[in-house]
Task: structure prediction
Amino acid sequence: MMNDMTRVERAVDSKAIKIAANKVQVYYGDTHAIKDVDVRIEDKTVTAFIGPSGCGKSTFLRCLNRMNDTIDICRVEGDILLDGEDIYDKRVDPVQLRAKVGMVFQKPNPFPKSIYDNVAYGPRIHGLAKNKAELDEIVEKSLRRGAIWDEVKDRLDAPGTGLSGGQQQRLCIARAVATEPEVLLMDEPCSALDPIATAQVEELIDELRSRYSVVIVTHSMQQAARVSQKTAFFHLGNLVEFGETGQIFTNPEDPRTESYITGRIG
Amino acid sequence: MALSWLLLILLALAVIGYFTGRSRALASAGGDARELHSLPSYYGYNVAMTALVPALGVLIVWLLVQPMIVNSTVSGLIPDQAIPEGSDRGLIMSEVRRVADGLSGAVATGAVTETQAQDANADIDELTKALKDAGQVLTQDITQPILVAAQKYRSMTGTGSVAMQVIVLALALLGAAFAYVRTHKEFRARNVVEQGVLALLLLAASIAILTTVGIVLSMLFETMNFFQLHSWKDFFFGSTWAPNFRGGSELSILPLLWGTLYISLIALLVAVPIGLFAAIYLSEYASGATRALAKPLLEILAGIPTIVYGLFALLTVGPALVALFGEGGALGVGWMASSNAVLTAGLVMGIMLIPFVSSLSDDIINAVPQSMRDGSLGLGATKSETVRQVVLPAALPGIVGAILLAASRAIGETMIVVMAAGAIAKFSGNPFEAMTTITTRIVSQLTGDTDFASPETLVAFALGLTLFIITLGLNIFALYIVRKYREQYE
Result:
């Protein structure tokens, strides 16, 4: 584990703040799921959310692109600022927001369409391409960024659901990248994948860092250590500790963090 | 001894068998149920089952077979010259059965002695009078051959039922004794009872299937009779439907098929968009409370008897359409002369099909995984874009299946078209005219005074069989599509 961590670059001080969350509270009906969370997510950085199941890390992630709006009983309080603008402001259209803050889900969920149509879905909806040639270009660029172009370039008309699990997840990442988001949210993107596919996706996440701010929820502490520069540890709806990944894993300040990363709670 | 007594005795035997079997099993284990292979009640069930099942089986088969044997033997006794002009053997046989029943009835009331009833040389006039005085129903005077046949019938039936009772009771006793002797703590009664349960379920399933086969076969034989009397070319390829009970009818299915398909098409044009949009609203947009209220309300529509829809068409929709499209109507076009029209029937049938389409589509749309919607919403698509471009394409095969099932209901629908579509068989594209369908013609050919030997009546079976094959084909196709779709996400 130590070897993994030394591999990761830690020059993160100079990055701009992309998302700032202040005093965020989330309620599911009467349940208080997220309590007083403050977090600064930096641009061009991979931020990992770790914590035991049910600690609220996925819930908080889904607040960042207002996916929680689709759940009737869910209520969010506090401010979340994207580039200084409150995303829960009345004037913000959640649909536009989600084009800027892309999301990759736990289980690969390609649409039952061709590989091409899967990637072209977002650009078509948002009118990003003027003509077919431009659309082709966007699709190719996105598939390249998703590190899957070489595997599918000869069968773009094949159904996306026919790919292997790891390929499907990279296709979903390419699909999310195609709308030119500024932030990519990933909700346990590797939990349904085998180790080889996981390694490929992790490598891809590291590449994506050069363009996007990436937030990843993971159950695997090794994964958090491998891919992230910043780590946030959630426990029972509280943000217990947030800091540089190396710091969190080698010298945690809070005893709960230490218990979790050494496997005593979780 | 009456059949009900026999059944009661069998039941009593089974109950006694249950308790003796149970207590014998317990006794063999020294009163400790834990020593037994199965729970004590299984041993009881085993004895009861072994007593009942073979006995009941033989009873049922006997009841089915005995009348056939008796009938064929007795009908052989009636000479051909005893059958009067204009009658047939079947009619004489029912007369024989009536006389036999009459004799038994008269003997039971004491109006005729048993010796008199069995006397082949009895005075026919006297016997007829005695039977009529005893209040037994006779449609004509008894003749010598009928009397002889009736006496033979009585004696065979009597012997038969005595033999049946003896054999059935013996079987029940033997079965009970066999199971009782086998009852021991090592005996695996639980497994035997399990086999019995399996057989019971299998029986229920095969009865359902055999009934279908029976229906098809009975239709098939009548249809073959029809094609012996009427040319199949006229039926399938003719252009006119003009039944005439004096003969020389033109009986072609095509004008009826046209009417059926035209009305069904209009019904689907009404039901599919409305039903589908209702399903999309209910599954994608409606809040939990709305859904809980609206879905059952919509499904109430499906519980309304079709005759009520027919009345609705006749009293409300038809006159309303005439007021709109008729002579001097609101639109002033004068297209519609009578409230009986293709449009009336189609509209009302469409209303009837709405809950059918919406309920099936709703289930299918709900079966599309939430992750598809999340993926689309996460890319910045709106709800309606998500529905249009992701949910509906994913659900499309299932929705097509639902529409095909609705179509086969529309084709087979009878009451609404009887009341609202009119009775004129013709090829016409005008939806304001009256037309008729296969189902309504079946009704009209079979109601009233009918003669089951004329093609005008038998054509109903050919129509019914064709209709059955069309809807069966549609249903199989629909189920195939639905099933293919289901495999996609599992």
Summary: Chain A touches chain B through 28 residues (CB under 8 Å).
